[in-house]
Amino acid sequence: MGLSILVVDDDDVIRALTTATLKVDGYEVYTASNGAEALEMVGEIQPDMAILDVMMPEMDGYELCQRLRKIPATAKIPILMLTALGDINEKLKAFELGADDFMPKPFQPKELQARVKVHLRRSMAQVEPPQEDQKTKIIAVFSLRGGVGVSTLAANLAVGLAQLWQKPTLLIDLAFQNGQTALLLDLALRNTWSDLVYNSPEEMDEDVLKRVLLHHESGVDVLAAPKRIVDAERITGEHVAKILTLARTKYQYAVLDMPHDLSASTLAGLDSAESILLVLSPEIASVRCASVALDVFGELGYNMEQVHILQNWVFQNHGLARKDIESAIRRPVRALIPHMPDDLLPALMVG
Fold first, then answer.
1. Which residues, including other chains, have CB under 8 Å from residue 165's CB and lie 6 or more apart?
2. Pairwise CA distance, residues 266 & 293, whole Å
3. Phi and psi dihedrals of 139, rounded to 5?
4. Cα 54–60–62 angle (5° rounding)?
5. Which residues contact 298 (CB under 8 A, 6 or more apart)?
6. Is residue 194 a contact partner of residue 225, using CB atoms and an 8 Å limit?
């Protein structure tokens, strides 16, 4: 039996059109004409995805989406909203209530098929725990200076590791107040750190972590930054340490997108890392911040052989020479990331 999709719409024609479109790709399609009927069905059919109309009588698609997220059988499935409404506020409301995608009516069948395939591929991506003889490696991408490309490098590193080695990979956004890792990977904020902050570290386990992860089509699982700053303020170093302990039970790699500070939660991430990629750009302020970070690492007793300096050319030219940077920080630059024009592919790391 193929993957199953629940279609909920009070319009008979739209239900028939959506069903016909999905059956072309071999999906098992179940339909309901209203929210109450859909809720009665989900426990039995346990769909792999749901497509919901917004404008329905008695229970609209927003409420139905919210309820589906509270039912174990549908808490993690992709939910696509189909609606004639096109206002940006309607889209934001759908995402806030747990939807993964928002598509206007009338829809193009090919586009619907493509979006369904993408969401199901992401949802069905499963990771296997690392073998007993394989040690999980935690890699922290860090800089005290903003604007040097930490988040971009962390996201690309995680995707690269997952695709190159085909190993379970987790990307954790520790920039709690302004992290954008999920945005870089085009993932809707269905779940974030916000779903964890009201648990004590002792209450968090593998199942709790699994429920809040986002899944990228590359195979990377993502723990996104909180939606609200008030939630960010509740996250402690103990929360971070517990999440990283749990990550070691399931993932081969965990990449940490670090904030530009030395808070307790940041230090918890750095303390757990087997490798720290210290990123700088070829300008005075960035080099100074890198030097300060290295001094702190030394005071904390970190193994400096595990700290690697990356120089990222975030601007086109007129930067400090590599030899001058190495002289200032008294450490070799392990890799250069060249500047590339906006209309070319992202730069690759070269030594």
1. 252, 253
2. 12
3. -120, 120
4. 70
5. 304
6. no
- 142: β partners: 278
Q: Residue 332 burial by CB count (10 A; 0-12/13-18/19+): exposed, middle or buried?
A: exposed
Distances (CA, A) of 60 to 55, 56, 88, 92: 6, 5, 18, 16
Q: Between 292 and 130, whose confidence is greater?
A: 292
pLDDT tens digits, 85-125: 666 777 777 778 888 888 888 888 999 998 898 888 877 75
* Amino acid identity for residue 60 in this structure: D
pTM for the full model?
0.68
CB 119 within 8 Å of CB 49? yes
Q: Which amino acid is at 97?
A: L
- H/E stretch holding 319: none
d(CA 256, CA 31): 42
pLDDT band, residue 57 (cuts 50/70/90): confident
Q: Please give the structure tokens belonging to residue 263.
A: 């808070």
Q: How far is it, in rounded angstroms, from Cα 158 to Cα 218?
A: 9
13: exposed, middle or buried (Cβ count in 10 Å: 0-12, 13-18, 19+):
exposed
CA pseudo-torsion sign 288, 291, 297, 299: negative
